[in-house]
Specification:
about 100 residues; 5 helices; globular
Length: about 100
């Protein structure tokens, strides 16, 4: 049997299973993208944006596949290219800068 687990609107995890002698299914393998890792990355960016009151931009970051590792290296120009307006860009950049200083 093969199944598809949808994690958010952009990620799918394929799961392969077989029936054991008792008729119960056991997972043989899944895709290389772990659900937990994907969810942690999404939660981190979403949490960061939520803390700034900018959670409405989460979908943009998901669409661009920006995780926290990428976000900390974003410049004003990158955020602008993603379509993030000036006010939210400045909030994001100021918060990232303050986190670097900690």
């Amino acid at each position: 049997m093969m199944g598809v687990l949808r994690v958010g609107p952009f990620y799918e995890i394929y799961i392969f299973a077989e029936n054991d002698k008792k008729g119960e299914e056991s997972i043989l393998s899944s895709s290389s993208v772990s659900k937990k890792k994907v969810q942690q990355e999404v939660d981190s960016v979403e949490s960061f944006l939520q803390s700034l009151g900018l959670d409405k931009y989460s979908i943009t970051f998901q669409a661009e596949e920006v995780d926290m590792a990428a976000l900390v290296h974003m410049s004003d120009e990158y955020l602008k290219a993603m379509g993030i307006p000036m006010g939210p860009r400045k909030k994001i950049l100021l918060e990232l800068e303050s986190k670097r200083d900690d």
